[in-house]
Amino acid sequence: MNVRADAVRNRGLLIEVARDAFTHQKDATLGAIAKQAGVGIGTLYRHFPTREALIEAVYRAELEKLCDAAPELLEAHAPEVALREWMNHFIGYINAKHDLKDALQAVFALGVNPFEHSRAKLIEAITLLLTPLRATAAPLDVMTLVVAVSQNDDEDQAGRLLDLIMAGILHGAETRPAELRSAPPAPAPR
User: Fold this and answer.
1) In this structure, is residue 90 part of a structural domain?
2) Integer Cα distance of 15 and 139 in angstroms
3) Which of 1, 10, 21, 113 has minimal Cβ neighbours within 10 Å of its Cβ?
4) How confident is the model over 143-163, as a mean pLDDT?
5) In a shared domain, residues 145 and 75
6) For residues 79-92, b (16+ Cβ closer than 10 Å) or e, as one string?
7) Which of these, 27, 26, 22, 24, lies nearest to 53 by C-alpha position?
8) More confident site: 182 or 131
9) What secondary structure letter does DSSP report for 115?
C-alpha cells in the first residue's frame, strides 16, 4: 500500500472511530480515538488539527454518505422505492446528527457552522430522486417534512408518516388548487 492510500485509509478509519466515540462517549479523547483506530496521535493531528475539525469531518462524512446514496438507490430500485428508502436513510442521518449534538456544539462555539453546505447538498439529492417521478413537490418541502417526521420516537408511526409523504408526492398533493390548500379546517363534529 502506498503512502497516499495509507493516509486515505487512516483518515477514513479515524472518522469512523470518531463517529462512534462522539456518539457514545461525551468525553472521548483524541488519544483514545487514535488508539482505537490503530494510529498514532500524530497521524490524527496531521489529518485533524483540532477536535472540532474531527467533529466537523464526521458530520460531513455522514452527509456525504446520505447524499451519495441517492444515485445508488436510483440505480438499484424503481424511483418510488429509491425515494422512500432514501427517506429512511435521511431519518437515520438526522438521528446520527442528534447523537453528535454535544460534539457539534463545540464546533458552533468556535463560530464554525458545519450545516452551511448541508442544505444545498440535501436539496440536490432530493431533486435527483424526485426528477424521475416527474414530481412537482418542492425539494425543500420534502426535506422539511422528513425532518418533522424524524422527531417522532414511534418508528411505526414515523413509517406511516413517510408513506403519507410519498402518497402526497406521487399523487401531486402540492398541485391542488390554492383554495383547497388554504381552506380553514372543518369544525369538529359535536
Assistant:
1) yes
2) 29
3) 1
4) 94
5) yes
6) beebbbbbbebbbe
7) 22
8) 131
9) T
